[in-house]
């Protein structure tokens, strides 16, 4: 009997040991992802689940001592006590984070830091769940040593989605090799309010152009394989209608109807979701009284049910708490957490919107276990799909080698060149000769590296950035005398050198005056908890930064600030031919310059290679073809002034006409292009209708160049009011001097549809006008076609 008991005991011990050694399903890479998710979910405590939804500020989570980098005490505490699952901006460096070139991390150190963080969570937690690390990536990974591309408003002005997809793949590679998994971007807000501080982060005012750019960014970021080691998850921002705040106040309330929401503001997000985007960030604003962070219609009905979104949603920084403090739709943090989670918001960017507040909400019965598990499973699923349970680490040597390599810098220059818009060129003043005897380079943005880069940019060694002054010096002959005078600041009026600028202009054959704005954060500016700047109308006794754009810097006017206009007027008065180069993040008042300056070049924030790109255009080594992705108004009193407004047509004011100074799609070239032989034909029926638009395009100039052909559409009679014209297709076409190409576009039912009075997507029978041209106002060809039958579409249903 004793012998049998011993044998039985031995068998039991052996069975127990085997069970302990057997690999859990969630750790088995051969198991289906869904099985792994459910297995892990079943092993987690309530606190561990809630922790997976918290995204804490990452730059506090590492310690750097000399060349050694390791996890910080704050990180160990957050993991041990709060079971966190995500970090944001771990590698970010800027005045808000107080990370400098000295205290921040170079790419190799960044890889070591993220490895240390992953090692701790994998080896020192009960379940060993790796982290998801999110980084800002809209125009380059916002970290030290990375490639800085033009900001999004410049990217939009390229009208070249294929180029932007290449750029996005490089940004993704630079972020992923340093240990990041999520890239925040693209920003898909429509910029129809130029006073708003974040115009530079958008692609412009048009839903079709923004859609194509958003698709390109998503495809470039995510690629075809999230386990590739060079791709990141794309987080779309800001869901939705964030870019049209009343009065231009960042994060302020917006006024839009449901039909306009579906026809204008949602399409770019829908296009990006269909392109495969796996993360969406909510906006700070409310829509019709419901905050986006707790908007079930947006997060469930539209995003998941109608569009079939499979990824996870995340709040903007602190926006869950904003349900209590800003919107006042929740009385307590627990109520806010419940509102957000129940509405379909999965993750919390801040670390305090859910956390204890969500645990309290669950304890009170405000949130069900099923709802919590659904949110957690969406986060875990992506960790499995990225292969992080098998390989959470990266190579520091690879990061140091790959980030900002020569090919990446070369592409930054190309994106900058294609983003430059030639607004005006009277008497062909441009391009300039490289053998000029003397050139005066004047202005606050001629030789300022940070003013050239835009918001969401890390600190830079000076030799990383090529300014306009440096670009010009590298372009002209050694015999050309280049004289530089700053003249004035962007905003500060206490120090000017206009007299010296006038002297330089008088002694030069050409004066290049570089003006505009700045989004360059500095260590003197104060920031609120969301990272937006604190701005006061009264700055008496305080140092005045150049910043007049960038998050939080909303404008009441669009005039050139400080003494810039006075500087320009003084230089023009000398009689020396003047070229104005604009480096800025939003449309500015250019009325005087347009009336008095022969050549105007718009470079937006062109990134690290901006100086080379501007010089390439000024001296004719690159034929400009950028086109405005946002209208330039004559006066703030015209606003809104976007091109695709609904009827009736706007009439003139007493003081001025109603048209913008420069319209959407405008941009000049050193070549001329002829449009001819338009043919429009229809085929198919019902939802398979096809409208083929063909025409010939010829470069009649003496230089090779690009033309951006634009196809607009107008529904002549519709049951609901539609835009007077709406961009539907575009193409950037390269033609050699004298070359002609046949260009073709195809319209389908989605291009022709509208939301009728019953909020149903429908193509109505009737006549449509096709307009083909070089801008929204420069229409070269037009024709009509007719739709015979009603076509009903199911755009609001899952596809």
TrEMBL record:
It holds the Pfam family Fn3-like. The keyword S-adenosyl-L-methionine does not apply. Transmembrane segments: none annotated. GO terms for molecular function: beta-glucosidase activity. SUPFAM superfamilies: (Trans)glycosidases (SSF51445), Beta-D-glucan exohydrolase, C-terminal domain (SSF52279). InterPro entries: Cellulose_Degrad_GH3, Fn3-like, GH, Glyco_hydro_3_C, Glyco_hydro_3_C_sf, Glyco_hydro_3_N, Glyco_hydro_3_N_sf, Ig-like_fold. It comes from the Bacteria. GO terms for biological process: glucan catabolic process. Keywords: Hydrolase, Signal. Belongs to the glycosyl hydrolase 3 family. This is Beta-glucosidase.
